[in-house]
Amino acid sequence: MNTFNVFFSGFSAFMAQPALLLGLVAAIGLIALKKPFTRVLSGFIKTAVGVLILSVGSGQITSTFRPIIVGMKDVLGIEGVIIDPYTTLPAVQAAASEQIPELLSWVGYVMVLAFLFNILLVALRKITRIRALFLTGHIMFLQASLMTWLVWYFFQLPQWPTILISAALVGLYWSIGATINIKPTEILTNGAGFTVAHQQHFMNWVAWKVAHLFGDPEKENIDTLKLPGWLSIFSQDNVVTVPLIMLIFFTPILIWLGPQALGHESFTFNYIISMLILELQFGVFVTIILTGVRMFVAELAVSFNGISEKLLPGAVIGVDGMAVAPYSPNSVVMGFVCAAIGEAIGVIILIVTKSPILIIPGFCPVFFDAAITAVFANKFGGWKAVVVISLFVGLLQVFGSAWAASMSGLVGGWQGCTDFSTIWPALMTVMKAISPLH
Questions:
Q1: Exposure string (b/e) for 237-274, b if CB count within 10 Å is 16 or more?
Q2: Under DSSP, is residue 408 helix (H, G, I), strand (E, B) or coil?
């Protein structure tokens, strides 16, 4: 039994490292294509390094900007639920530690079994129609942790029934969610050979289906839009566009939050310099993300042909949602801004209506969720679709998260991304209805 536990622990730890996991996938694909050892090794390294570059850019954006948005809580003098995937994990850990400490050791089993279930469904694709392998490791760990908690919270079953039910639900979510994104991602990327495996599958699919109602994607593509006069600067390279938009969007927020938000005691020239550097850094971080994505997607596009041809015919690899960012960098920024506005409107409505649950916006849902959906919106409906759909996503994140938080049994945190504001609270409602405990 100890050997069994060590295997599951080690395998789940490996899977939680997307750089190693995707590097291994690239290597396996190149081996299947009978490439020489040097090509296999370089494929592994380039893929792993590309994913790590993406992680560096994502981590810098999150660590830099999340405290600023969360700082609004102190300015408004409110307590509530912070919607951010990385507040959910501590909330799960705190709740489990208080009620059932051993639950945290079950997560590895759930993650591994859910992944094996995903592979099985792909292997049986002629029956299941499932083609996507979900390989976004850190997201897999977060979602497995949350589902393990929810299943135990609603039913309080023993260890293995909880693990098996949780793994089945998570595995189905990964398999179906990433599969419904295959077609729109293929169109978006001109057949790059991957799908989105993240936390907004449903809204990406919705954007694909409804974005055309808002505009012509050929004439109104946000990345090729011809703007008049001085506005044309916003249609230049994203290295220019991103800091400019952040300058316009974030400067009023930083002034409102006050100099303490950036570690200054008063409004001085140094504070202005700090604001300017911060807004320029956003452009740096986005450039880092795009560089990493281009590197590992280029490798996976070649290597996964080996897997889809030799090992799992017809399978499609599911990767981090930021993999679509290079296909429309301006959509990423505009989606982020519009979703943030939508979230702000949603929070105001909650305050005005005296909601018993107050949502505090987080950074990840507006950037690593809404911005991804915005890329799909632009591809299938142009800039107007980006604005409308992103505003709607922001509102959905607030109201859907309030719905979910009312049932989650967690204190202070919820995922916030759109699948966790729609599909998951709907599932929680069903679980609550059939639970003998709630």
A1: ebeebbbbbbbebbeebbeebbbebbebeeeeeebeeb
A2: coil
Give 90 or 202, the one with higher predicted confidence. 202
Q: Which two tokens stand for residue 246?
A: 């952040």
Who's near 373: CB < 8 A, 6+ residues apart? 200, 203, 204, 207, 335, 389, 390, 393, 418
Rounded-to-integer distance, Cα 391 and Cα 239, Å: 24
Residues in the chain: 438
Question: Where would I find the beta strands (DSSP E) of 84-163?
Answer: 132-134
Sign of the CA dihedral running 36, 197, 367, 67: negative
Token digits of residue 357: 């649950």
321 Cβ contact list (under 8 Å, min separation 6): 136, 196, 197, 198, 199, 200, 368, 369, 372
Q: In angstroms, rounded to a whole number, what is the distance separating the alpha carbons of residues 64 and 309?
A: 42
pLDDT, tens only, 119-138: 899 999 999 999 998 988 77
Beta strands in 320-379 (DSSP E): 359-361
Rounded to 10°, the helix 137-155/2-15 angle is 130
What are φ and ψ of residue 134, in 5° steps?
-80, 115
How many distinct structural domains can be found in the chain?
Answer: 1
Question: In this structure, how many other beta carbons lie within 10 angstroms of the beta carbon of residue 129?
Answer: 11
As a whole number of angstroms, the distance between CA 368 and CA 286 comes to 11
Tell me if 394 sits within 8 A of 345, measured CB to CB.
yes
Can you tell me which residue has the tokens 């505003």? 391
Q: Which of 225, 254, 214, 218 is nearest to 329 (CA)?
A: 225
Domain ranges, residue 381: 2-434
Rg, C-alpha atoms of the chain: 22
Sign of the torsion angle spanned by Cα atoms 370, 375, 378, 379: negative
**Neighbouring residues of 233: CB distance < 8 A, sequence distance ≥ 6:** 240, 241, 244
pLDDT 10s digits, 257-308: 777 766 677 777 777 888 888 778 877 887 787 787 677 777 776 776 666 6
φ, ψ at 16 (rounded to 5°):
-75, -5
Separation CA 44–CA 153 (nearest Å): 40
d(CA 378, CA 394): 17
Rounded distance between C-alpha atoms, residue 152 and residue 250, angstroms: 41
